[in-house]
């Protein structure tokens, strides 16, 4: 790899660190190509991505970035999992680590906050952006449906009473 290629990789990594909601650093030693492709596919499906880069280039790209505190995690064979959604990459990484013991989560960063293994697991336990939007929408819609039910209830009660009166007269 010549100097121009290295500079390009450092620039790409810098953009990843600036635009990602979460970055998860993991060891992948001993994983097969098929396992790595499976991880990439799962991450892509969740809206994230996986990147393998030399630790020295990654450390250079981290300089001056909010997540620079995770530089100490970059030892050995590391892979970066990242996504704009602050939860997606962490969820996929934690789920994948459960089924593949060769994929070991070291930690990561969420904005300027460094995360250890427990921190990544805590982020993964949070609801995703879509789940939060659905919860908010249901909270907003619940009062309206309650009001509609309350407005419609007296009419159905009156109809029930009238039906009962008709049945009594007929009997």
What would your notes on this structure say?
The protein is of the alpha+beta class and 171 residues long. It has helices at 3-19, 33-45, 55-62, 88-99, 117-125, 129-170; strands at 22-27, 48-51, 78-83, 104-110, 113-115. The protein has 2 domains: 3-126, Alpha-Beta Plaits (2-Layer Sandwich), CATH 3.30.70; 127-171. α1 crosses α3 and α4 (88-99) packs across α5. The protein is elongated and about 95 Å long. The chain starts with a helix and ends with a helix.
Q: In DSSP terms, counting alpha (H) and pi (I) runs of 4 or more, how many helices? A: 6
Radius of gyration: 26 Å
CATH topology label of the largest domain: Alpha-Beta Plaits
- The side-by-side strand order for the widest beta sheet comes to 2-3-1-4-5
* Unreliable stretches: none
Largest β-sheet summary:
5 strands, antiparallel
Average pLDDT number: 85
Shape: elongated
What is the assigned CATH homologous superfamily of the largest domain? Ribosomal protein L10, N-terminal RNA-binding domain
Q: Helical residue percent?
A: 55-70%
Strand content: 15-25%
């Amino acid at each position: 790899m010549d100097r121009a290629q290295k500079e390009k990789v450092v620039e790409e990594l810098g953009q990843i660190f600036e635009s990602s909601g979460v970055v998860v650093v993991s060891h992948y030693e001993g994983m097969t190509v098929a396992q790595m492709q499976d991880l990439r596919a799962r991450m892509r499906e969740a809206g994230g991505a996986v990147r393998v880069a030399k630790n020295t280039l990654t450390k250079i790209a981290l300089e001056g970035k909010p997540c620079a505190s995770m530089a100490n995690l970059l030892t050995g064979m590391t892979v970066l999992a990242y996504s704009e959604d602050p939860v997606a990459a962490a969820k996929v990484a934690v789920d994948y680590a459960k089924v593949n013991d060769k994929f070991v989560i070291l930690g990561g960063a969420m904005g300027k906050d460094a995360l250890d293994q427990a921190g990544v697991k805590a982020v993964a336990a949070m609801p995703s952006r879509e789940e939060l939007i659905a919860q908010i929408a249901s909270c907003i819609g619940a009062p309206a449906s309650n009001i509609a039910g309350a407005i419609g209830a007296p009419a159905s009660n009156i109809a029930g009473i009238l039906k009962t009166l008709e049945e009594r007269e007929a009997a």
